[in-house]
Amino acid sequence: MFKPWSILSTSVIIATALTTISLKQASADTITGAAVADNKTQTVTTPITADATMVLTATDVNRHQNVATVTSKVPDKASDTKNDVSVTTARDKSQKQEIVQTPDKQTSAGNDIPTDIQVSHSVARDDTSATETTDTDKTSESASAGKVVVNQETHEHTNSLQVATLTSFQNQRTFRDSNRDSKIQARSGWVNDNGQRKYQENGHFISGEKKIDNYWYNFDNNYVMSRGLTQLPNKIVYYNAQTGRMVYGYLWYNNDFMYFDDYDGHMIKGERHYGNNSMEYYDNSGMQVRDAYVWAGNTFYYMKPNGDAVKGVRYYGNGNMEFYGDDFKQVRNNYAQDAAGRYYLTSNGDAFKGVRNVGNSFEIYGNDYKQVINQYVATGSTFYYMDQNGLAIKGIRHYGNNNMEYYGSDAKQVRDAYVHDNGVLYYMKSNGDALRGFRHYGNNMLEYYGDNFVQYRDKYLIYGHKRYHFGRWGDADTIDTVDANGNVVAVSKFNVWDTAYITKFADSTLGGSHDLKQLAGQNVTILNKTQTNYSNSSYYYTVRLANNNIISHVLEQDLQSSPVQFHVDVNQVINWFEYNKGRLTYSMYGSRNGADGTADCSGSMTQALYEAGAKPYDYLYSTESLHDYLTNNGFKLIIENASSWDAKRGDIVIWGKRGFSEGAFGHVGIMTTTENDPYFISTCYLTAGAKGSAVQEVRYNEFAQRDSYPYYYVYRQM
Fold this sequence. Notes:
The chain is mainly beta. The protein has 6 domains: about 75-260, left handed beta-beta-3-solenoid (Ribbon), CATH 2.10.270; about 270-345, Ribbon (left handed beta-beta-3-solenoid), CATH 2.10.270.10; about 355-430, Cholin Binding (left handed beta-beta-3-solenoid), CATH 2.10.270.10; about 445-485, no CATH class; about 490-565, SH3 type barrels (Roll); about 570-715, endopeptidase fold (from Nostoc punctiforme). Helices cover about 5% and strands about 40% of the residues. Strands 47-52-48-49-50-51 form a 6-stranded antiparallel β-sheet. Strands 43-42-41-40-44 form a 5-stranded antiparallel β-sheet, with no helix packed on it. Helix 1 crosses helix 2. The longest helix is centred in the last third of the chain and has 11 residues, at about 600-610. It is elongated.
């Protein structure tokens, strides 16, 4: 190892240098040394081994006194390193210069250049605040196997210094006075040129990228080692501010993080995926984005305060929520799911809450943004049920141990009302469950619903010791006593001189000699009874009317023991229309009430009112004459052509000013829901007379708008 020169006196002028070389072992390498004395030069050529020691002694000419001794011991070198020794003048006593093998450099990807970087191999500004976060000990260089380390001291009193010259014919080493020539030639190795680090190879300074001792460096067009951010021809890199080595991985720079590729050191811009499916993002200047949105690739990302991209739910602001998928992209206009639930994200990326219309149904999202699935939702006294897909159910819902509910076309649960569905009738109890078994209602009226919840119509039922027959409209019209074998024990409902009443559903006498429809509700006296087995009757009777007229062959099924109540059940009116959906074709010139499969609006309403409990009609009324039929059956006019009204289920609406509403100038229907935008059902020409489509249920306001908001009347049962 070379030891530093020791200057004993600034006044000493070296006139003669005496060189002594001690040899310990021969080798293939040689060094040529020159000793200078009395202006004569003597050349000595000796082989030098790996552990040889070279001693150079400088002697004062006048005093023959030893001034300084430099000893260099060359350690063993690996076979792939060069053995040249370069001696330079250092400015820093602690600095060490390494001479190592230079392998071929690797290629790397390119990058755009930030605005604060100099171009074309020039050294960018040396930012000593930059810190390599992945290498904690990169500020010093140490000697190791395969390297020669030269310790150099700064010479003082240079005005009086004469530097001894060692000339080698093989290595061409030259020491010059630093005042005369700062350029120091060396065959290969590091050079400190007036405080700037350079590297020589084969006697020439190098520029561009260079791999030295397995580290990448760069030298600008002035051969000066690059430090800091540097623009290379095809990428931006960072060189350590102290060592000049290329930086890989994270770098703390100007109070931000940067990242340089682990393979070729290029500055990362855009997405960086790492670890177990994590992602970071670096802007166009290479700075890591933190606690901010990123718009890239036509989508949004959000980077957390630690720089990682968000996945899953993110809450922000005043209780707002966003969702980011497994690919870190913000979800918009789509559903998202995690372990906690299902969400819908709107067009701006915010999670939705409340009612969301989907096709002809809707979804509900709670205040926690989770979609309601397989649950009831109550708004006031109205219930909805959201199915396994989160959609509001319409129609029949079976649940539990053979229970059933029904939800209307508006998705509201039906309670305390009849339901017509697919040609059959159900009754929903006050808790929303479908009824099974007997139902007593009105004035001693009786219905029956089977195990499948369907109302019995035109059907017998034996229950206990009774046999019931339920007529066309589901009411029990005969009740017979049966024996243990189910045989009817003929027992008349009425005896001679009993008082009875003609039912409101009475048709005609046995044999058709008398029409009983117009006599509905009248009380009669039984004059005679005769056993029979006709229709649903075990007897027929001869009766006397209040006006003393006598009528014979009145079937038992057309008489009842209690007075007839002509009270219209508006739910039954609605059910009539529901039942006839898909069955009737619009026509003003057929039966008008559906008897022949055709009907119009007022004929349908007349028939529906009658079958729901209204008094027998004299004829099928028009929109002109229907007003009186309504008031005669307990309805009251509550609105006449007002700007609006609070609609209620069962309100009957007649269009067309009275006196001008005949034929096509009038219309009538009934409200099926109670809400701000209610539904309205009627027999109409909305489908231009398409077969089987006369009965339509539509939004009232839309329907009225189509007809330019006609003059109207509203009747409500009181």
